[in-house]
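Thread: Protein-serine/threonine kinase, structure

OP (GT): Posting the sequence first so everyone is looking at the same thing. Length is 455 residues per the record. Can we get the C-alpha cells written out before standup tomorrow? I want them in the notebook alongside the other entries.
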Amino acid sequence: MLACLKQDHARVLRLTRQLQTTASRKNLDAIVPKATQQWSHMPSSATISEQEISRLATLPRRPLTLADLVRHGKPPLSDDALLSSANFTLSLLPARLAHRIQRLRNLPFIVVANPHINKIYNNYLHSLSILEPFYQKRISTMEEEEKFTEVMADLVQTHTNTIPTLAQGFLECRKYIDPIQITKFLDQHLRARIGTRLIAEQHLALHMASTPEARQQKPDPYNIGVIDSSIQPARIVRSCEAFVGDICEFKYGVRPKIDINGSVDATFAHVPVHLEYILTELIKNAFRATIESGSESHPIEVTLAAAPDVPMSKLDALKRLAVTDESALDFTKEGLAEYCTSSEGIQGPINSAAPTITIRIRDRGGGIPPDVLPNIWSYSFTTFNADEAGSVNSMNDGLNAITNGGNPSSIAGLGYGLPLGRAYAEYFGGSIAVQSMHGWGTDVYLSLQGIGKVV
C-alpha cells in the first residue's frame, strides 16, 4: 500500500513538472520566437561570422568631419578620385556597423527580441554582410565601384526608418529597461547613425554627380555631394518659416511671423538637410509657444551672427569631439589622435580658421516651465500610456508631425525632435543652448562649425 502511494506521488510530481515546463514554455513563446530561444543573442540570416564582427568592433573609429566629406574634391570626379572615395568609405563603415551590432547585443535579450528593435539589429547585420566582399580588398576598377555604389544605395535604404522603428520598440519595452539606459543608448546610436548615413550618402552623391550623363550637364558650383559650400542660413530660415507657417495656418488658423536681422547675407559650408531639420524643429517650438500663449502680435526674432575670425581652428573644433567614457559621441581617442596628426586636406591646413555661424531664435511665448526645462533634452519615451505605445503614428498633433527625421509623422509626438536636433548640431562641433525666462519667452542659440574655404 505504501509503495503504491509513493508511485502515485511520484507520478503526480512528474505531471506537475511537465505542466510547469509547458506553461513556462508557453510564456517564453509569447515573449520571443522559438527560433531565438537557444541563442545568447538574436539570430540572423546574415552570413558574416561572429569572429569577424568581434574583430571589426575592436577597430578604432576615427571622427568624421565635414572636411572628410569634401576631401575628394568637387564633382564630377575623375575615376581615380571616385575610387578613392569608395575606398575611403570602406575604411570607415565596417567598424561603425560592427560596433552598433555589439551595442545592440549589450541590451537585455528581451529588449533585442522585440520585433522592432530586432529589425534594426538584423538590418545592421545585413549591411555588414553585404559590405564584407568589398572591404577585404581595395576597390580598383570602375566596375567594382559601380557594384559597391549599388550596395551603398541598399544600405541607405535599409536604414531609412531606423529612428521611428527604434522609437516604437523602446516604447513597447520601456518596462524591461531603465529609462536612463535607453536615453544613453539612443543618444549614442542616433549620433552614430548620423555619421554612418553621411558616409554612405556622400559617396552615392559623388557617384551620381560623376556619371557620364551628369558630366554632360553644367556642374553645381557649390554642391560637393551632401555638402553645400555656400549655404545661406537666412534663406533656410525663410523656407522653414513658410513650411511651419503653412501647418500652423491649416491647424490653428494662425500664422506667426519671423523677423530676421544680423548677418543676413552670411554663407558657410555645411549639410543642408541637417540645418533644415534643426531649424524646422526650433521654429516649430517657437511657433507653438507663440500660438499657445496668444502672442501672435509679437514676431519671432531670428538673429544671424557670422564669426569667421573667431580664434577657433579646425583642430580646436575637432578636439571638441574627444570623448570620455561618459560621452555620447561614438568616437575613440585613438581615432582623434590619428586624425589630428594627419596631413593637410583639400581645404587647407588643419590649423586654419574654421568659420562659425550662430543663429538666435527669440520668442515671446511665455518661456519654458521650470519643471519642464530639465527634461527638454530627454527622449520622451516614458510619457505615453499603454494605449498610445501601441501605435507611434496615432499622434495627430499638426506641429508634432512636421519634424520627423525623414518619414512623415513617424516620430510625431515622441519628443525626439529637440534632442535629435542637438545631435545633428553637435556632430560637427556645433551646439544648441536654451535660455528661458518663464512668463516671458525663450532664446535658443544654435552654433554651427564650418570647414573653411573649399578650393
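GT: Both are above now. Quick notes for whoever picks this up: Residues 11-40, 321-353, 381-414 have pLDDT under 50 and may be disordered. The first helix runs from residue 2 to 31.
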